[in-house]
Amino acid sequence: MAYFRRTGASTFDPTEHTGGAWRTDEQHVAPTFGLLTHLVETDRVARGRDELTPVRLTFDVWGPYPLAPMDTSVHVIRPGRGVELVEAAVTCAGRTVATLRAWLAAAGDTAALAGGDPPSIPGPDETPAWDPTTDWPGGFVASIDVRRTLAEPGRGTVWVRTDHPLVEDEDVAPLASTAGLLDLANGMSVRADPRRVAFPNLDLTTHLFRAPAGGWLGLDTTVTFGPAGAGVTSTVLHDADGPFGRLAQSLVVRPLG
Fold first, then answer.
1. Residue 228 in contact with residue 200, Cβ under 8 Å?
2. Domain map (residue ranges) of the chain
3. What order of strands is seen across the sheet that includes strand 203-208?
4. Is 160 helix (H, G, I), strand (E, B) or coil?
5. Whole-model pTM?
6. What gap in Å lies between CA 144 and CA 142, rounded to an integer?
7. Fewest CB within a 10 Å sphere: which of 53, 61, 128, 184?
8. Does CATH place domain 4-106+122-255 in 3.40.50.2300?
9. What are phi and psi of 101, to 5 degrees?
10. Looking at the DSSP assignment, which residues form a beta bridge with residue 104?
């Protein structure tokens, strides 16, 4: 079963696999990030802008939202010959719940200049399996396969993948499939027990220096909690070929109970 089913030109229904971790009657935002990326990718192709490639994805979470039908939109807010800024949005239960602003840039051959990659992490075959449902409930967390080495609270290397398609009966590019897993960075190398401390993220920004291959997503993550209720999750992103980008999430940290 996929995470979403298309019901119209711009509408989608979530399936049980999108169930949230902080509350199981709400949606986990991770699949929605994948859906937003899929909208930008399909719009780019439909407009004949195949020469453009996403180099930055910035997602904002406007609030929690239920397992209910979703409406979507996508439009170019800064057109250009070599650079574009595209915005996609999802509404659910009558309000906007998540947005994506994606910078797209014309691809070019810079292989002779490539360098400066962060260090690689051990691959999924070299990383022990871990059951994420020991920390988190919900349909989305139950739908993923995880490998994890936790060096200390808030510091770990993780590999995640899913066998579930993002959208039923649609071709989804590797970038969108990968984007549907990015939000897991904040929950797989936790600094504090999520039953005792809440640390939801308000946003997620990914900078890409190459396109991901899809399949396994590697997360080399450090979680920092500050002294005044804020935190940051910082991650170097990997696929089977090595690092491909960096990610940051702003956290609101609140003790529970």
1. no
2. 4-106+122-255
3. 4-6, 11-14, 70-78, 83-92, 95-106, 52-61, 203-208, 242-252, 230-239, 217-225, 155-162, 144-152
4. strand
5. 0.97
6. 6
7. 128
8. no
9. -115, 120
10. 54, 84
State the Cα–Cα distance between residues 5 and 69, nearest whole angstrom.
Answer: 10
pLDDT tens across 235-257, in order?
A: 999 999 999 999 999 999 999 98
Closest CA to 216 of 157, 168, 134: 157
- Judged by DSSP in three states, 107 sits in coil
Q: How many CB atoms lie within 10 A of CB 187?
A: 24
The pLDDT tens digits of the residues spanning 26-58 come to 999 999 999 999 999 999 999 999 999 999 999
Longest dimension (CA), the chain: 56
Q: Which two tokens stand for residue 103?
A: 């910078």
